[in-house]
Specification:
- This protein is α/β, with parallel strands linked by helices.
- It has helices spanning about 5-55, 85-95, 130-135, 150-160, 185-195, 210-215, 220-225, 240-250, 280-290, 335-350, 370-385, 400-405, 420-435; strands at about 70-75, 105-115, 120, 170-175, 200-205, 225-230, 260, 265-275, 290-295, 300-305, 355-365, 385-390, 410-415.
- Helices cover about 40% and strands about 15% of the residues.
- Helix 2 (about 85-95) crosses helix 8 and helix 10 runs parallel beside helix 11 (about 370-385).
- The protein is elongated.
- Mean pLDDT is about 80; it is low at about 15-25, about 305-330 and about 440-449.
């Protein structure tokens, strides 16, 4: 083989090797790309699956879409619950919220955590959309506390302080391991909460052999309101059950007012509210007036919210039409209103000789500006023979003066008692005894709206 032939053979071999390497290398690139594409497709399928799960978890159940309800969660954060399990409680609350129609017009949610004492996580009016509410379930708002299990104190707080709406579905969900520090007090508070129109759910976690405390908390029938699971991992199975069950519950309508039928020789009712408290007082006054019944002319009523002549002996069919906060003399202080009330009561006594007179004074912080003079003037009305009732519209200072103004200690009522309709009902019942010569016994009628 000559040199030219040898050179051509070597060149052909090198080209063949180069082509072979190029082909092998090219196939290697294509293989890596294919594997990368497979990995991307797998990741995309995983993302789609996770998104479907999130959409499913956040889907509002059909029965909850237009549900008007107030729900309050009570979460056990005592030392007997591991912190990891406590976090599972929080995630459980998130999952239920995702299934509800969170809106100020429909479903509202509040929560607290408790151990020795309670800590309010967020109020029932605080977050009015789902995203804000879910984001509020975090370490800052709902921390792990540790300590004893004071379940009674937590239920009492919710019962006495949460501004539940009237005549809607109201549910309190208690999550606990069951070992309450005071089972008797817990049962008593739960019973009172049920009487006030709340459904009580209990989710008991753990191998708790004595279920009597849980049954004492839960509404009847127990099978519908009490759930016993072995550990917190099982909470996932209850997410849909709890949400659907709450949304299927009808409102518990309670605390109906009883109409007061005034008999005997007649009576007078005198309402006094300063301009700053008129907007709060007027709906209460209207409810009371609508439920006081008598023969025509037998009961005289008057309203003082400012020193104007229109406020005397008015029919009170629409209290807001008389002498409201925008009247020319709206800045008159409360002492002036009390003096006019006393003068009006004296005139009625002289002219009509009515034996029974009741005055209802609506007091706020602005009304208490001259607390000593107001207290003295109210006591003068009591000495005149007027039964004086006090309605506390949220006085924050010098509250001890309120009892000094009233005819007796049990004649002081707080606006906070209004939740569930308690204020109007209790106030009307006591007033009616004073307006009549004998206690009343009348059929039940609903309160005015």
């Amino acid at each position: 083989m000559n040199s030219l032939t040898l050179w051509l053979a070597v060149a052909a071999l090198m080209i063949a090797v180069s082509v072979s390497q190029d082909v092998d290398f090219g196939f290697g690139i294509d293989g890596n790309r294919e594997r990368q594409l497979d990995l991307e497709r797998q990741r995309e399928r995983e993302r789609e699956r996770e998104q479907r799960e999130r959409n499913r978890a956040q889907e509002i159940y059909p029965g909850c879409r237009d549900k008007v309800a107030d729900i309050f969660f009570i979460l056990d954060s005592s030392s007997s619950i591991y912190i990891e399990d406590y976090f599972k409680q929080r995630n459980f609350v998130k999952s239920i919220i995702n299934r509800l129609a969170i809106d100020s017009r429909f479903t509202r949610v509040g929560a607290l955590t408790f151990s020795d004492n309670y800590r309010v996580s967020f109020g029932i009016n605080e977050y009015r959309d789902k995203l804000s509410l879910v984001n509020a379930i975090n370490d800052q708002n709902i921390p792990y506390l540790s300590g004893a299990t004071n379940t009674a104190s937590a239920i009492r707080y919710v019962r006495e302080n949460v501004p539940f709406r009237n005549d809607i579905t109201r549910a309190i969900v208690v999550m606990t391991d069951g070992y309450s520090a005071a089972p008797g007090a817990t049962a008593s508070e739960a019973d009172q909460a049920r009487r006030e129109g709340n459904y009580l759910f209990v989710i008991g976690v753990g191998q708790y052999t004595d279920e009597r405390e849980w049954r004492a908390i839960a509404s009847d029938p127990d099978d519908n309101f009490m759930f016993n699971i072995t550990d917190y991992r099982a909470l996932d199975r209850l997410q849909s059950t709890i949400a659907q069950r709450i949304c299927s519950l009808p409102p518990l309508i309670i605390n109906r007012l009883q109409s007061c039928f005034v008999q005997g020789n007649g009576a007078d009712v005198l309402f006094v509210a300063g301009p700053s408290g008129a907007s709060t007082a007027l709906p209460i006054i209207k409810t009371l007036v609508d439920n006081i019944q008598a023969q025509p002319g037998q009961v005289q009523m008057s309203l003082q919210v400012s020193s104007c002549s229109d406020a005397e002996n008015i029919p009170l069919s629409d209290p807001s039409a008389y002498c409201g906060p925008n009247s020319p003399n709206a800045q008159d202080d409360f002492i002036t209103l009390l003096r006019r009330m006393r003068a009006n009561a004296a005139e009625l006594r002289d002219r009509l000789r009515t034996p029974n007179q009741v005055a209802v004074l609506f007091i706020d912080d602005q009304s208490m500006f001259n607390r000593y003079e107001i207290s003295q003037e109210a006591r003068n009305a009591v000495r005149d023979g007027v039964q004086v009732y006090i309605v506390d519209l949220g006085v924050t200072q010098n509250r001890n003066f309120l009892e000094r103004m009233a005819s007796r200690r049990d004649a002081v009522f707080s606006i906070n008692d209004r939740f569930g309709g308690n204020l109007e009902g209790r106030l009307l019942r006591q007033m009616c005894d004073d307006l009549n010569e004998s206690p009343f016994n009348v059929p039940e009628v609903p309160p005015s709206k």
